[in-house]
Amino acid sequence: MKYDPVKKGLGNVFNRSPFLRKLFYRLLDLLLLRAWHIKRELRRARKQVGEAGDVLDAGSGFGQYTFFMSRLSRKWRIKGVDVKEDQIQDCNEFFTRIGEHDRVHFELADLTKFREEGKYHLVLCVDVMEHILEDVEVFRNYSFSMKDGGILLISTPSDQGGSDVHDDHEDSFIEEHVRDGYNITDIVTKLKTAGFSEVRAGYSYGWPGRISWRLSMKYPIIMLNTSRLFYILIPFYYLLTFPVSILLNIMDVRLKHRTGTGLIVKAVK
Length: 269
Fold this sequence. Notes:
Layout: H1 4-14, H2 18-31, H3 33-49, E1 52-58, H4 64-72, E2 75-82, H5 85-97, E3 104-108, E4 120-126, H6 135-145, E5 146-157, H7 184-193, E6 198-204, H8 207-226, H9 230-254, E7 262-268
Parallel strand pairs: 1-2, 1-4, 2-3, 4-5
Antiparallel strand pairs: 5-7, 6-7
């Protein structure tokens, strides 16, 4: 399934003004369950990092989480990096237009090569590692670039049906994924090997999240890939499904899951 063209098309629509871009971020925060989990972890990290600090958004994409972090503390200095030049340009333009370019900026970077020794108090990595084969090298780069006691937060699919893959004969729903999901033991071991002393991993997208993901993401993306007509019809679809998805997201964040299709990982250097 072509996921990136749909994201790019929606981004172009909402990139016409700062107001529309903020609205886009807000809609993503509500619809994407991973945002609910990550924002909770970021609020907790804010207490540990403190009021001032250097933050890296590794694989910043649309800048959704960079924007959220810029509101958590006005004294955080935030860098977003990504391999997509158009998104870097769009993000820099947006944060300049809203007057945040002095403390928030974006750079083109390959995470397999990105290294800035001992700089960051917090590194955020949301839905990135499933796109990178050289994951251990990236984990080492994160560790090298962080201060002692720094926090790494990762959101990524698990091997319990992540990427909507449930057996060896299925392909990832997201074409761009190089792996279908991480085993908890595997990712914890890799992070400790890379230099992290404390690693905690837990499941997200339990049964409520799986239903919510299908309603709010999978089915709409299938429709948008089918015909441009659905760009007009999709608001009416969400009018029906949005309340259900929100309720399911609330349940997923509040419940503790014995298994799930997503992982939330916190590692301390």
